[in-house]
Sequence to fold (298 residues):
Amino acid sequence: MKPRSALLAAIACGALALLLVALDLAFNVEARLEAQQADGSWATVATTAYHDPRDSTIVQASGRCAQQFRLIVHNGMPWASRVRLQINGFGAGIVLPPQTWTLAAGGEQSFSFAQPNVTATLANGTQGQRAESFVVQFPGSDIGSLYSPGCLEAAFVPAKVMP
Amino acid sequence: MNERTLQGALTFLGFAISIMAVFYFATTYVFRPDLSEWTRLAALILLGLCFAFLGVYLRDTTLRHPFFAGPRLLWLRPPVVLYLLALFAGITAEAVFLGMDDVDRAVKILVSLLVGIGLIVVVANRAKRPAAPAA
Fold:
């Protein structure tokens, strides 16, 4: 390999590495969780702005627990904007594998709870299980969850992640 | 201090400062928890390639000589330092790859074996064979 070619290749590789990191940090992945109100409209109940895992929002719609939720992922580079949504289901003494979806930027995942507080209808049709918590995990973050016995709580847990 | 030693020491200082800057960049940005694992992996691979190409470039320049005189430090030459940095970046990239959650374990093992054995085979094929002793 000619020295000049090697130098050009080194500069190109270094510049591309810097560019990738800069793009990833500049367009950090963001997501928001929405709950459907009684009138059918969608209200944001949690966003990546919640840095403190304890800073949760009780999801209610006109006096009852919300049943319809959707997670929307936006911003972020195509290769770097993966957000994992996890719903933990527990039966009568049986712990089910968590239901997990991984979304990219522009992705949207809806899920519902047919009977609030008691029964969760998950995306794959599993019924009769109780939704204990749901968790949104960002790349590199620890999984955390919040649980409210009275009503479903929603919280993001990217305390380590978002600047 | 003779001229050769002064030149070697200054070059070594320049290398040390540059390497510290690269490590500072890596710990500050590349290993930030909010950076995607894929970006981290790509950045480490590219940095490794960057070091390797710089080593190839310096091999044919006046900087190919050892930093310091003396038989024990003959191996310490700028290209060797850059090759070692490339090696370190490559090993770190492999560690990041093996720690990725998005990739299945079987795929990680398969890819790692293919890359590792592929590297060995490619280097073995490209290396010049030693001349056979005359009969």
